[in-house]
Specification:
6-stranded antiparallel beta sheet
């Protein structure tokens, strides 16, 4: 059995020592302090952008993963721990020194899944599992503190070359997962390495959750620049207290200044009051939001469309509101999701999209695992290569439901 007090002190010391280390030094730091806590042979694995493989962070080579093994998210025990956000033991005694038990633990920050942690222990009891969870949580904070300025991390989580537009978009977007104040948010974008003009954004201010999805004209680097300008203009306006309509008009003004009418962006901008569940949104020439209620009904939230931002059509911007119910799931998405076609020309479609969300939620997958599986299904439907960008921003409002937000 591990000593909880000694383990806790060791994790505190690890955090104190982490302030001046680089990403490449994290594996050694984690292994050293984990051993002091009674967890042996600890190793860190990070997930790639598409959430298909888990790669060991070794600290060696240009991607800090030199000489390290990798596991698939589908079909491996580490992958199961990642998908289920769980602590899983390898069956029986696995031949580690002293007959120790080997464990795999999901590494998460809130609901953002970063990878998995491996460690061996002498015991198999709840205090041991708690220490494993504590180590995984602390490791997540270490990774988050280093990844924003580490090219090694960026290389490690990529499985193919990335175009310039995608490079801009991934550096623009907030984390793909968030949970707080009774709300969970998840987002995915494909093709992950060739994104053109899609973008999503969310932010919290007081009790308000700001949500937006953008789809810029075209599929080239200029489309990526257009989407970047739109998101920046949106953030700038709302941080000055602008309403949804005023924010969209500011986005349009900036786009017209930069591109005249040669480039435009469609989008949905929304505000959710996390305390009351009141949703307000506007439609700038985009696909209408979908609401999944009681995991049975799909409701399209109707709102008269104003023109795409940058088109200078001068149409009125109308705001609509909806009172959400606890458990409602709001879907903002771009056309690449529903318009992906198979070899026979059959679209993935809105109904299949909504049904996928309902079925996987009923299967008790986390919101973020549902999105991972959804985008894999969309990619498979289109034989692995999308003709258009596909983005989903999924928000679940819990309301008065007291369920834990994290798995």
């Amino acid at each position: 059995m591990v000593d909880r007090a000694a383990a806790a002190l060791s994790l505190v010391r690890m955090m104190q020592a982490s302030h001046t280390v680089t990403l490449e030094q994290i594996p050694g730091l984690v292994a050293e302090h984990a051993a002091r806590a009674g967890l042996h042979d600890a190793a860190v694995y990070v997930v790639d952008l598409r959430e298909t493989v888990l790669r060991r962070l070794t600290g060696e080579g240009c991607d800090a993963g030199g000489g390290g093994e990798e596991y698939t998210v589908q079909g491996s025990l580490p992958g199961q721990a990642y998908q289920r956000v769980d602590v899983l033991a390898e069956p029986g005694r696995d031949g580690t020194p002293g007959g120790r038990r080997r464990w795999w633990v999901a590494v998460t920050d809130g609901v953002e899944r970063l990878g998995v942690l491996r460690a061996d222990t002498d015991g198999d009891d709840e205090p041991t599992r708690e220490i494993l969870r504590d180590l995984a949580s602390t490791t997540a904070l270490l990774l988050l503190s280093k990844r924003s300025f580490s090219d090694s991390y960026a290389r490690l989580v990529r499985t193919e070359a990335m175009n310039v537009a995608a490079e801009m978009q991934w550096n623009l977007t907030p984390p793909p997962a968030y949970a707080g104040r009774g709300v969970t948010v998840g987002a995915v974008m494909e093709p992950a390495y060739q994104i053109g003009g899609d973008a999503f954004d969310y932010a919290v201010a007081g009790s308000t959750l700001h949500l937006s999805v953008f789809d810029a004209m075209g599929h080239d680097t200029t489309a990526g620049i257009t989407a970047n300008v739109a998101v920046a203009a949106c953030r700038n306006a709302r941080r000055q207290g602008a309403s949804l309509a005023e924010t969209s008009r500011q986005v349009e003004r900036v786009l017209l200044e930069q591109f005249s009418t040669s480039r435009y962006v469609t989008g949905i901008l929304a505000d959710l009051d996390m305390a009351s569940g009141r949703l307000a949104w506007i439609n700038r020439g985009h696909h209408l939001p979908l609401l999944v209620r009681d995991n049975r009904w799909t409701i399209e939230l109707v709102c008269p469309p104003a023109g795409p931002m940058g088109s200078d059509l001068g149409l009125p911007v109308v705001q609509r509101t909806e009172q959400l119910q606890p458990g409602d799931r709001l879907l903002l998405y771009t056309d690449g999701v529903v318009e992906a076609r198979d070899a026979d020309g059959t679209e993935f479609g809105r109904d299949r999209f909504a049904d996928f969300i309902r079925r996987h939620h009923a299967g008790r997958h986390t919101l973020h695992e549902t999105l991972r599986r959804l985008m894999a299904a969309v990619m498979d439907h289109h034989a692995g290569r999308l003709a258009d960008d596909a983005t989903v921003l999924l928000t679940e409002w819990r309301g008065g439901d007291q369920q834990e937000l994290t798995p």
